[in-house]
Amino acid sequence: MSVVAPLELPPLPAAIEVAAYRIAVEALTNAVRHAGASHVELRMVVNGALEIAVTDDGPPTPQWRPGVGMTSMRERAAELRGTLEAGPHAPGGRVLARLPL
User: Fold this and answer.
1) What CATH code is carried by the domain that includes residue 45?
2) Residues with Cβ within 8 Å of residue 74, at least 6 apart in sequence
3) Average pLDDT value for residue range 24-38
4) How many domains does the chain have?
5) What is the pLDDT at residue 80?
6) Which residues pair with 41 in a beta bridge?
7) pTM of the model
8) Least CB-packed of 3, 39, 41, 97 within 10 Å?
9) Which domain holds residue 93?
């Protein structure tokens, strides 16, 4: 696993911090449980929004079926007027959350 993130983040509202943490943990947990990957990356970028991407290099899979974890990640992002995309992405899978700042 690798993490790519700024050395320092701007001060974030508590709701953004909690949502970012929960989304990242759920996406990492899903990658470990379901992806069959040899590598997972967590990347955070700040550019008017906090973007959190969890990608893996697991084998190609068909469209993902949303379960409780996927639904909760989408709801957390939506509560903050953010977005969440999740599904197959070359070479494996990707969860991308954008939480506006």
Assistant:
1) 3.30.565.10
2) 66, 84, 86
3) 92
4) 1
5) 98
6) 2, 55
7) 0.93
8) 3
9) 2-100
Cα–Cα nearest to 56, from 85, 78, 26, 27: 27
pLDDT digits (tens, 9 = 90+) for 57-97: 998 788 788 889 999 999 999 999 999 999 999 889 999 99
Longest dimension (CA), the chain: 38
Could you give the C-alpha distances from 95 to 7, 10, 11, 55, in angstroms and in order?
22, 22, 24, 7
Q: Which of 56, 76, 59 is nearest to 68 (CA)?
A: 76
DSSP label at 9? P
Q: Is the peptide bond before 66 cis (omega within 30 degrees of 0)?
A: no
